[in-house]
Known about the structure:
Layout: H1 3-10, E1 28-33, E2 38-44, H2 50-66, E3 71-77, E4 100-105, H3 113-126, E5 131-135, H4 143-146, E6 156-157, E7 160-161, E8 164-166, E9 169-173, H5 188-200, E10 209-213, H6 220-228, E11 233-238, H7 242-257, E12 262-273, E13 280-281, H8 289-295, E14 300-306, H9 308-316, H10 320-323, H11 328-349
Parallel strand pairs: 2-3, 4-10, 4-11, 5-9, 5-10, 11-12, 12-14
Antiparallel strand pairs: 1-2, 6-7, 8-9, 12-13
Helix pairs in contact: 3-11, 5-6
Bound molecules: adenosine-5'-triphosphate (ATP) and magnesium ion.
Amino acid sequence: MTQENVLEALKNVTYPGFTKDIVTFGFVKDIQIIDDTNITLTLDITSSADEVKTQLKEESTAALNKLGFEHVGINIIAPEAPKQLSNSVSGKNIAPHVKSFVMVSSGKGGVGKSTTSVNLAVAMAMQGKKVGLLDADIYGPNIPRMMGVEDQKPEIAGNKLNPLKAYGVEIMSMGSIMDEGAALLWRGSMIMKAIEQFLRDILWSELDVLVIDMPPGTGDAQLTLAQSVPVTAGITVTTPQEVSLDDSRRSLTMFKKLHIPTAGIIENMSGFICPSCDTESDIFGMGTTVPVAKEYDTEVIARIPIEPAIRIGGDTGMPVTYHKPDSETAKRYQEAAKNLLVFIDKVNAEGLADNSAVQPTTPPGVSACSTGAGAASTPAPAPAKGSDESCGTGCGCH
Ligand SMILES: Nc1ncnc2c1ncn2[C@@H]1O[C@H](COP(=O)(O)OP(=O)(O)OP(=O)(O)O)[C@@H](O)[C@H]1O
Ligand SMILES: [Mg+2]
């Protein structure tokens, strides 16, 4: 077997996206034929994309197997993937004056996202950070009550709005703009617009961190947020019961799909702190989230017990972290906030917040509404004029 035979065989491997093969491109280097069944070679390619590396390795191995080589060693030399800093040129950012964005999510409702968002935001402000809190739960805005600003309306400044402020945190919520209890039967497209406006048309200061309290689930709001700003950290809130853990897996999978760095899980309602005896007892279970965190290569960043003071703090607009700073719960929120800030610094230092991979990818002239299954290669027709329905893809098409 000669080098020529090997090169001839590798001419069957085309470079992904091109019609030319890897030999013609001059990518094949260092062919070492060890014996009739062993060969090593180097592919010195120009793409940093993992898919390209995998495809070339597989196809080259198959071509050489056909020649009788059973053991094929392929070393790939590729340029480093470009690293971009959050808030610089990493994909799209419609709120560039905010340094970091934290998405607080959960697979299902009522597990304590808003409570967590409030207390983490207050804790980070108490630790000296400039913090904002955006209530992106358009249908069920609870943040104004929880932060004690439900009677306040934001000031209008030109065609923008000033955020409200409490406990050192800037706040904006649909609940502060719409009348109380107004039924919000909004379609997906309107939710997308609202979220974009919350980021673009609110006069947030130059914030270190904007905490974003999401509606439950994994829908249009989450996708729009991820496409609009490079989210720095995703936090999933869950309660410890197995049924809730299943939902939290969906939320963790969503972070992966949206390329959001996962800061970790907050296990909420984990044990009960009895107000009269100060002891902690197990109600929904405790520590059940650890295996889930491992499964997703992340951490449990806090276990927050059920404590009446937390609920009362939420109902009365007096967050426990601020008003009961010596309580066990406040200490745990402070610890979680500290860990979150370390995580954020790491993500920013390594330039890992980048949403370019989740931008709608449609060729020029093709409706963004065609981003459904298989649409990347087969453009679907644009929707009928005047159609008001959301395409359900979060593509920002209406
Ligand atoms: N650790 C806790 N101890 C006691 N009460 C809690 C705790 N966490 C949350 N609560 C209470 O449980 C209720 C639901 O919490 P919260 O509104 O934060 O959940 P959510 O996930 O934001 O809900 P939704 O999905 O409806 O937005 C609130 O009344 C809150 O005060
Ligand atoms: Mg909520």
